[in-house]
């Protein structure tokens, strides 16, 4: 809990793009399984970002919150802390912010995702 | 042990499965609360790890529904959450969650919390074993499974009142008295195992010699549990069980058995179970009598205030009449829904 509390107070630049060790620890150090889950994750996130884009257009705050929440949860699970941070900002703003701002926060999520893909592919 | 993971995010379930399987647990998954409820009814699930925020039923709604279902064995519920606000956690506990793990989980923390869950589930299994053994002893004199259920429920209600009455007085009440009496009161007649069939199952009235033999069920039970107390003197549970078995036929005026203890020399737990046992005998059907109505039983108990029964225990009874009536109707011998053992009524030959 302390670790998470500390992470909340960090700015985006201080999050790791990909914390491989933490991710491997969560899957019992099974590298093959980690690889499989990571590919699934990389396949899954764009679909959820697309749903958010659609939900911003139809002004469906519940859908924005739910999809951002899921991206946040699975990002942190696979060690994508920075992407998780962007998704959390979008989730937290989904109830109150105007839709233009939510659109900008979605762009951050997309940027975070591209950055993650770059690091992972290395 | 089988663990059910509930999350609408498949990736979260994959990771949870990897973590849980690497610890040697069997893992089943549900992608929402309704699927989880269905699985719980079909399979023997002892532990659930559920996400908090899900479409449809949330993890907390799921916990509430599981507790409402009142499954026969306990299901331990851990909620995965990114919330750490005290109010959120309190709400979760109130709904029936047992523990929380903050997301993303730390593998070491998950491992340790699963061990805690296992310890608690093992305790529950011990309690079920004790209750089943008490029921086994009871089947010898044709008691039903529900008799013991009623006794422990009456005893718990009386104990709740007594804890309140006695706080701040000289009479010391153990901190978890209410729970302890609930767990141990079913053992009150365990000594009947040692009473010969020709006395225990005699259809007619017992003569003096037979009644003397019958009375020894208190000392037989008490001594058996005393041996356990000697082995583990610090276990309060055993001491209370021994006191109840030994002294639940003592009377407040000193005219009871086996020791003729008087007043507060009779352990408090035995004074409680004494009233619970007599009330249950009065309102239940016996071979030799129809059940008395609650009002008749109440009158008899009121008449025994200060002679047969501790006045305070009688006061507690009078204050909780409604709950007693509720227990009688919910756990009647006719319904006998909770009997673990097959009904052996009439199967025991008399001599």
Compact summary:
The complex is a heterodimer of chains A (122) and B (351). By secondary structure, chain A is an all-alpha fold.
Can you lay out the helices and strands and say which pair or pack?
The complex is a heterodimer of chains A (122) and B (351).
Chain A (H helix, E strand, L loop, with lengths): L1 H7 L11 H7 L4 H27 L3 H17 L3 H13 L5 H23 L1
Chain B lengths: L1 E5 L3 H12 L4 E5 L2 H10 L4 E5 L7 H11 L6 E6 L4 H10 L3 E4 L4 H33 L5 H22 L10 H8 L12 H4 L7 H24 L4 H12 L20 H16 L10 H10 L7 H9 L1 H10 L21
Please tell me about this protein's structure.
The complex is a heterodimer of chains A (122) and B (351). With 122 residues, chain A is mostly helical. In chain A, 77% of the residues lie in helices and 0% in strands. Chain A has one domain: HPT domain (Four Helix Bundle (Hemerythrin (Met), subunit A), Up-down Bundle), CATH 1.20.120.160. Chain A is elongated and about 40 Å long. Chain B has 2 domains: 2-123, Response regulator (Rossmann fold, 3-Layer(aba) Sandwich); 142-330, Hypothetical protein af1432, CATH 1.10.3210.10. In chain B, strands 2-1-3-4-5 form a 5-stranded parallel β-sheet, sandwiched between helices. Chain B contains 14 helices and 5 strands. Chain B starts with a strand and ends in a 21-residue tail after the last helix. The interface between A and B is medium-sized, with 25 and 23 residues.
């Amino acid at each position: 809990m302390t670790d998470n509390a500390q992470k909340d107070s960090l700015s985006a630049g201080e999050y790791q793009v990909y914390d491989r060790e933490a991710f491997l620890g969560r899957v019992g150090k099974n590298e093959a399984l980690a690889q499989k889950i990571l590919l699934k994750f990389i396949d899954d996130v764009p679909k959820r970002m697309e749903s958010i884009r659609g939900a911003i257009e139809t002004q469906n705050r519940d859908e924005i919150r739910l999809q951002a929440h899921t991206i946040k949860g699975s990002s942190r699970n696979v060690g994508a802390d920075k992407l998780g941070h962007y998704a959390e900002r979008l989730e937290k703003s989904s109830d109150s912010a105007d839709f233009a701002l939510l659109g900008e926060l979605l762009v951050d999520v997309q940027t975070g995702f591209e950055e993650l893909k770059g690091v992972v592919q290395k | 042990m089988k663990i059910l993971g509930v999350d609408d995010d498949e990736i979260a379930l994959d990771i949870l499965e990897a973590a849980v399987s690497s610890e040697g647990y069997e893992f089943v998954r549900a992608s929402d609360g309704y699927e989880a409820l269905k699985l719980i009814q079909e399979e023997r699930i002892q532990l659930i790890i559920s996400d908090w925020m899900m479409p449809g039923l949330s993890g907390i709604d799921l916990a509430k529904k599981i507790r409402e279902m009142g499954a026969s064995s306990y299901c331990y519920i851990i909620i995965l959450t990114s919330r750490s606000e005290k109010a959120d956690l309190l709400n979760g506990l109130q709904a029936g969650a047992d523990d929380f793990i903050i997301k993303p989980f730390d593998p070491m923390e998950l491992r340790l919390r699963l061990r805690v869950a296992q310890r608690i589930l093992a305790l529950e299994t011990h309690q079920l074993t004790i209750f089943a053994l008490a029921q086994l002893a009871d089947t010898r004199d044709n008691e039903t499974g529900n008799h013991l259920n009623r006794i422990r429920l009456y005893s718990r209600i009386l104990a709740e009142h007594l804890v309140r009455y006695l706080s701040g007085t000289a009479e010391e009440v153990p901190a978890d008295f209410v729970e302890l009496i609930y767990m141990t009161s079913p053992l009150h007649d365990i000594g009947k195992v040692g009473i010969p069939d020709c006395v225990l199952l005699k259809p007619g009235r017992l003569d003096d010699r037979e009644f003397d033999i019958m009375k020894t069920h208190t000392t037989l039970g008490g001594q058996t549990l005393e041996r356990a107390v000697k082995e583990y003197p610090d276990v309060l549970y055993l001491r209370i069980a021994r006191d109840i078995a030994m002294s639940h036929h003592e009377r407040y005026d000193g005219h009871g058995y086996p020791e003729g203890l008087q007043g507060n020399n009779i352990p408090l737990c035995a004074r409680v179970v004494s009233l619970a046992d007599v009330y249950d005998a009065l309102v239940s059907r016996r071979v030799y009598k129809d059940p008395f109505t609650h009002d008749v039983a109440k009158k008899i108990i009121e008449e025994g205030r200060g002679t047969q029964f501790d006045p305070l225990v009688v006061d507690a009874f009078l204050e909780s009449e409604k709950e007693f009536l509720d227990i009688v109707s919910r756990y009647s011998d006719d319904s006998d829904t909770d009997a673990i053992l097959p009904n052996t009524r009439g199967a025991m030959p008399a001599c």
